[in-house]
Design a protein that fits this description.
Distance between the termini: 83 Å
Number of strands: 0
Protein name: TELO2-interacting protein 2
Structural class: mainly alpha
Helix content: 55-70%
InterPro entries: Tti2
Shape: elongated
Largest sheet: none
Organism: Larimichthys crocea (Large yellow croaker)
Family: Belongs to the TTI2 family.
Radius of gyration: 32 Å
Length: 478
């Protein structure tokens, strides 16, 4: 049966080869007979003979179904069309599930043939866009359509001998990547005036971009950066946040030289600063992205050696100053956690140059340590980490701040000891980190902290706090 199947599959191929030979389109005959003879049958007769083959009808149906399904997938995700709403989706049947199943069956047949044929490479980009549109959890998808789209994507990977989606996009020496062709499919929908009309195109573009890593991203940077900037510049916070993630991924997976070329890094830096000023919800992605981008634009202040007698203010100072200004005035607990989580890497990057911001940094640390952030106390733990890094780095400037900082740390120990809402692990972390900061302050004050702690007895605090303070018995070196 296997031999019969192979013989059946080879018949259309042999017939096509003979027809191409009659038309003098085969590579071997192109050099020998540049012009057709008068004895050839009319072209209409040859086309009718081609269309009589079974595979011709199959190819026509496959191509038509792919085109129709891609158009349907995009139309159902347009924000201005009624089918986007859940009520509309319930009235209009979704053809994506059945379409995915039909395409999956066809790709299984392609996978049995093996190799990356011309038909497979031609139809792969729109099919990939179609499957990505439907395997994500979006308003225009259902559990059945998502499962069918995932099956279609897996069948596509098997047919093209790709390991995963990233391999499909980037390829290697043996398998061709399809990133450029997929961008060709998406490009008409990614222009400034069109992309907002199609809700799906931004998610497909973001998924495609996030699959591509270094070094495959740099050759396509000129096509990936403009749509990311468009998303980041949108007034809707969810689009702005998606653009921030795309830009951060580009910064992480592009060489610094490519980012600095054509002033791209400066443009991205300006776009990153806009959400910091006006959109608080974007800070979770903006602040880490800014930190990575600053390493591309300039040398970190902490990398300057002792020979650099004068460290001029730079963009790191501007960003840290802006962060501290926003942190001091922020009253939303969620945003305070975002700021607190982003601050320690910036203090690390600044090095001894953090001395230029100690006054404002002190106010921020004291303010955040006073506010309860249960149950995980993320803000307090991060602020204690910032205080530890600042003391170690700028210890000569801490002697004049010992009284204020020690009073705040002791109050924090008392609050933690009586807070019944904290878990044992969180309480232990806060206690250990606070004790470490007190030890560092004692080292900066040449033992003055120990003399102050000797005045504390059981009438002032609980036994747990006394045991914690008893551990501060050795001086910490500078």
């Amino acid at each position: 049966m296997k031999g019969a199947a192979e013989h059946t599959e080879s018949e259309p191929s042999m017939e096509l080869s003979s027809l191409l030979h009659d038309l003098h389109l085969s590579p071997s005959s192109s050099s020998e007979k540049p012009l057709p003879s008068a004895s050839l049958p009319p072209i209409t007769e040859l086309l009718s003979r081609l269309q009589e083959a079974d595979w011709w009808a199959e190819l026509q149906v496959a191509y038509s179904s792919v085109s129709a399904l891609i158009g349907c997938a995009l139309c159902r995700s347009v924000r201005t069309t009624p089918p986007l709403c859940p009520l509309g989706l319930s009235r209009h049947p979704d053809p994506s599930g059945s379409g995915c199943s039909a395409l999956t069956a066809r790709w299984e047949l392609c996978g049995n043939v093996g190799g990356q044929s011309g038909v497979l490479l031609s139809v792969c980009p729109p099919v990939c866009v179609f499957s990505v549109t439907h395997f994500q959890d979006r308003p225009w998808t259902s559990p059945a359509s998502r499962a069918a789209a995932r099956s279609l994507q897996e069948a596509l990977l098997r047919a093209g001998r790709w390991r995963d989606s990233a391999h499909l996009l980037t390829g290697d020496e043996e398998n061709r990547g399809m990133l450029g062709e997929i961008l060709d499919v998406l490009q008409p929908q990614l222009s400034k005036d069109v992309w907002t009309r199609c809700e799906a195109v931004k998610f497909v573009f973001a998924w495609t971009l996030l699959q591509v890593t270094r070094p495959s991203l740099s050759p396509h940077l000129s096509r990936l950066l403009p749509p990311s900037l468009l998303l980041n510049d949108h007034y809707r916070p969810e689009n702005c946040m998606l653009g921030v993630h795309c830009l951060h991924h580009i910064v992480l997976n592009t060489t610094p030289a490519d980012l600095r070329q054509f002033n791209r890094a400066e443009v991205v830096y300006g776009r990153f600063q806009t959400p910091v000023h006006v959109r608080g919800c974007c800070h979770a992605g903006v602040l880490p992205g800014l930190l990575d981008l600053l390493a591309v634009l300039e040398k970190p202040p902490s990398s300057l050696g002792p020979s650099s007698s004068h460290r001029k203010p730079c963009r790191h100072d501007d960003v840290l100053r802006l962060m501290l200004t926003h942190m001091e005035a922020e009253n939303k607990v969620a945003l305070r956690r975002v700021y607190a989580a982003a601050l320690p890497p910036y203090v690390d990057r600044m090095g001894v140059a953090v001395c230029r911001h100690l006054r404002r940094l002190e106010r921020v640390v004291l303010g955040y340590l006073e506010v309860r952030d249960s149950p995980e106390e993320t803000s307090r733990l991060k602020m204690l980490e910032v205080l530890e890094k600042s003391i170690r780095t700028a210890w000569p400037r801490m002697a004049c701040r010992v009284d204020v900082l020690l009073r705040c740390l002791l109050k924090l120990l008392l609050d933690v000891s009586v807070d019944s809402g904290l878990s044992d692990s969180v309480r232990q972390q806060l206690t250990n980190q606070t004790s470490l900061c007190i030890k560092l302050l004692d080292g900066c004050s040449h033992g003055d902290v120990q003399r102050l702690l000797e005045q504390i007895d059981s009438s002032c605090c609980s036994s747990e706090v006394l045991c914690c303070l008893a551990t501060v018995t050795t001086r910490t070196g500078r």
